[in-house]
Specification:
With 172 residues, the chain is an all-alpha fold. A hairpin with a 3-residue loop joins β1 and β2. The chain contains 5 helices and 2 strands.
């Protein structure tokens, strides 16, 4: 549960900073925000690995029988597809950002002291390819987060099945 909420807060913050920083003129503030965004991306990637390891070794509790029985097949499919898409993008978006940074010739120096390896060569044409992939991946992840939250709110306020209580919100 803690990993879920930590990753949720990190993703919302990353997306907001990403939207804000790209339109800033070249300045020390823009450079600082880009560095923070990269550092947070490494944190998201690390949290994603931890979350995946946790999920592989700890199965989530089954949905309550009443909730499972009330869900039409398309909702179960949307639930599973949204989670799978999120897990894929938890890794793809930060890795695409890292690759874009490497291809652009701007290495990631974690917290200003630990240089991370570039895993693609400096290449303007590769950077031009990777930049929109990182952006579109971030927008796709944001869309899936909105869908995930909408589904949770539907369960809470339309179905009134107290599903959010499983994630530490509301009364169980």
């Amino acid at each position: 549960m803690a990993l879920h909420w930590l990753l949720a807060v990190a993703l919302v913050g990353m997306f907001a900073v990403g939207l804000y920083m790209v339109d800033l003129p070249f300045s020390p503030q823009r450079l600082q925000l880009f560095n923070w965004h990269k550092w947070a991306g490494v944190l998201v990637l690390t949290l994603s690995f931890v979350r995946l390891l946790w999920r592989l070794t700890h199965r989530p509790p089954a949905l309550p029988a009443a909730v499972e029985a009330a869900m039409p097949g398309w909702q179960r499919l949307a639930h599973q597809g949204t989670h799978l898409g999120l897990y894929i993008l938890f890794f793809a978006v930060p890795l695409l950002g890292w690759a874009y940074s490497s291809a652009s010739g701007f290495p990631i120096v974690l917290f200003g002291v630990l240089p991370l390896p570039d895993f693609v060569p400096v290449s303007e044409s590769l950077a031009d390819l990777l930049k929109p992939m990182h952006q579109y991946g971030a927008y796709a992840m944001a869309a899936l987060v909105v869908l995930h939250v909408a589904g949770a709110l539907k369960h809470q306020f339309v179905d009134r099945d107290r599903l959010l209580a499983r994630m530490g919100l509301g009364r169980s």
